[in-house]
Amino acid sequence: MPADTTVRVGMVAGEASGDLLAAHLIAALKARRPQLRFAGIGGPKMIAQGFESHVPIEKLAVRGYAEVLRHYREIMGIRRRIAARLLAERPAAFIGVDSSDFNLDLERSLKDAGIPAVHYVSPSVWAWRGWRVRRVARSVTHLLAMFPFEPALYENAGVPVTYVGHPLADLIAMEPDRGKARAELRVPPGSRVVALLPGSRRSELQYMGDVFVQTARRLLQDLPNAHFVCPTASRATREMFEAALRRHQATSLPLTLLFGHSHEALAAAEIALVASGTATLETALFKTPMVIAYRQSPVTWALMRRMLYLPYIGLPNILAGEQLVPEFVQEKATPGALANALLDLLHNAVAQRKQIEKFREIHLVLRQNTAEKAADAVLAVLDASQR
Fold first, then answer.
1. HEC string of the chain?
2. What percent of the chain has pLDDT over 70?
3. Taking 60 as the threshold, does the pLDDT of residue 260 lie above it?
4. Do 260 and 237 contact (CB within 8 A), yes or no?
């Protein structure tokens, strides 16, 4: 019988954005090395690429200190079990995709045991205190950075790092077709289309669902031809948004509520209200002017505010190095303030044009053929470990 040439790679992604990143990386790696097999924790996009998930990805999709504390014992139990399994199976390498709070300690255990650990997506060391760079240095064999300012931070700490860009910049067209997207979504002709992206996690909808619904109601008073499009990431978040509509007697809003299809929603919209996170980068790549809102539990925000040192929370502002996009955080993220900011932006062609021009620059910098670059770096680590 021929020898088994299978090479096993461990991988953990903890949320929807990581599932997408990991799926593209798996596809690029398998195209080069068909003998690679991937297992660990992942979502539906990874599974569609042949990934074997031992734990549902939803178990890790928890955001914020207060929320994590409620699920702490369960999450730590999952990490102990997956670490034990990986240490027993000894894959040729491990790839932790984002979810640094879960993955970095796991990666350190594996690295200490002689298993190369690659971390894909830098933790936000540029937004937090510098001790996180030292933690990354202890935990990883190689880091794949998505933003151009990140490699220098790690090189100074002696961490091998490769800038790979962002896969969304490869996937999203430089000039999205707004007319086509509106036709696909069957948006009423002549509408002012406003995208609402209140978050992909239940914890985000808990704090922002009501605010987004109330903002839409306020905006409609001054913009009667508005039509809202709201993509939801899961059945649970869709139900939470629908409950917010009922609570605020807003079920008659001119609204297209979608399951997924965030890209179509952003392509169709002329303006967007977006919860801080990866969705703000997606919105920028679609060249859609936006306002950013962020709310968390008071406990989580009190802890975060003490550790943050950047003046911005939105990725477009961080990448631009300026307050390009209006941000409304915590108690400032009120329906009145958000509705006024959206109206101001809608009526300010200069501000819209400034956002769009900077978004185009960001898109060009991030468009790096990311999956192929990331695959090159991972294969280099694999080959070095097997020599």
1. CCCCCCEEEEEEECCHHHHHHHHHHHHHHHHHCCCEEEEEEECHHHHHCCCEEEEEHHHCCCCCHHHHHHCHHHHHHHHHHHHHHHHHHCCCEEEEECCHHHHHHHHHHHHHCCCCEEEECCCCCCCCCCHHHHHHHHHCCEEEECCCCHHHHHHCCCCCEEECCCHHHHHCCCCCCHHHHHHHHCCCCCCEEEEEECCCCHHHHHHHHHHHHHHHHHHHHHCCCEEEEEEECCHHHHHHHHHHHHHCCCCCCCEEEEECCHHHHHHHCCEEEEECCHHHHHHHHCCCCEEEEECCCHHHHHHHHHHCCCCCCCHHHHHHCCCCCCEEEHHHCCHHHHHHHHHHHHCCHHHHHHHHHHHHHHHHHHCCCHHHHHHHHHHHHHHHHHC
2. 90
3. yes
4. no
Q: Given a cut of 70, is residue 358 above it in pLDDT?
A: yes
The confidence band for 296, taking pLDDT boundaries of 50, 70 and 90, is: confident
- At 310 the pLDDT is 60
| Token output for 304 | 């975060």
Token look-up 């002012």 returns: 192
Query: Tokens 């959206």 identify what position?
Result: 342
The string of pLDDT tens digits covering residues 185-243 is 999 999 999 999 998 888 888 888 999 999 999 999 999 999 999 999 888 889 999 99
